[in-house]
Amino acid sequence: MSHPLLDSAPEVRQALHEGRPVVALESTIISHGMPYPQNVQTAREVEQVIREAGAVPATIAVLHGRLKVGLGADELELLATDKAVQKISVRDLPFTVARGGHGATTVATTMRIAALAGIRVFATGGTGGVHRGAGQTFDISADLTELSRTPVAVVSAGVKSILDIGLTLEYLETQGVPVIGYGVSEFPAFYSRESGFTAPLVAHGAAEVARALQAQWALALPGQSGGGALIANPIPPEAEIPRAEISPAIEQALSDMAAQGISGKDTTPYLLGRIVQITGGRSLTANIALVRNNARVAAQVAAELQRLQA
Ligand code: PSU
Ligand code: MN
């Protein structure tokens, strides 16, 4: 698919053209989700995991106002180090393009660009959701509305309990977004395999996920996309931080945030950084492990989808 505002790397364009699997990756996790140098190391490693699983990685960002799909080493480094790179949500995208600026794309924005590029599967760490206290603040991530309208499957480790997981699942139900536990009947909570909430749907293996996605997109009304799906893949058992251990760190981070008066788009980056500090880096190790695990599953789902379409 070509688009006047979009530059796909030759490797990505070639793979899409030949019907080979491609997996999109976001850049907010690089610029605002992890400290340097683990951010750029993880970005490279995750691309490698996708290659080893037989797919082509396509890390997405906005650079000089262009939608970039598939980044080079120097571009990853820039996103990892340049403090001027803003986190851009879907509302920010037109302005960044018009000004010719740079932006690190959130899950929502990455989904939008992936869809424009013709990519259907996307791996990340955790998605945004309904924040605690949203009844007052109305802070609901645009990731959820984008999932309702853009035909991309997002493989994540569920949502962190810095969010209100129950309200997030309710909101996704309202928006008609399939939420599929990957081999588990409990919806995972990012650092922990358990959340206390049941996964609305369960799939065993990438082929089952791909068949569900194919059916979802075949059921789209004329002129509509069929929307996205959330594949909730729990952190590997050996890397998890059990709920009882991570909960105090999350509560501490939330109360520190309130004391500092942080809100809006700064909420998620602040909480992620603070939890790394409070856990002495353990949450970062867990975060890296779960992203790699999601990348592997996303590559398998992308491969199964291509097989169905062949
Ligand atoms: N969750 C993580 N790491 C992240 C994010 C979420 O574990 O880096 C980022 C993603 O880019 C996600 C964004 O789309 O935070 C959500 O931000 P907000 O809550 O402002 O929508
Ligand atoms: Mn928000």
From TrEMBL:
One of its GO terms (cellular component) is cytoplasm. Coiled coil: none annotated. The active site is at residues 26, 160. It comes from Deinococcus irradiatisoli. GO terms for molecular function: hydrolase activity, acting on glycosyl bonds; metal ion binding; pseudouridylate synthase activity. Binds 1 Mn(2+) ion per subunit. Belongs to the pseudouridine-5'-phosphate glycosidase family. GO terms for biological process: nucleobase catabolic process. Its EC number is 4.2.1.70. It comes from the Bacteria. It holds the Pfam family Indigoidine_A. This is Pseudouridine-5'-phosphate glycosidase. Its cofactor is Mn(2+). Substrate binds at residues 87, 107, 141-143. Homotrimer. Mn(2+) binds at residue 139. Keywords: Glycosidase, Hydrolase, Lyase, Manganese, Metal-binding. The gene is psuG. It catalyses: D-ribose 5-phosphate + uracil = psi-UMP + H2O. Catalyzes the reversible cleavage of pseudouridine 5'-phosphate (PsiMP) to ribose 5-phosphate and uracil. Functions biologically in the cleavage direction, as part of a pseudouridine degradation pathway. The keyword Hydrolase applies.
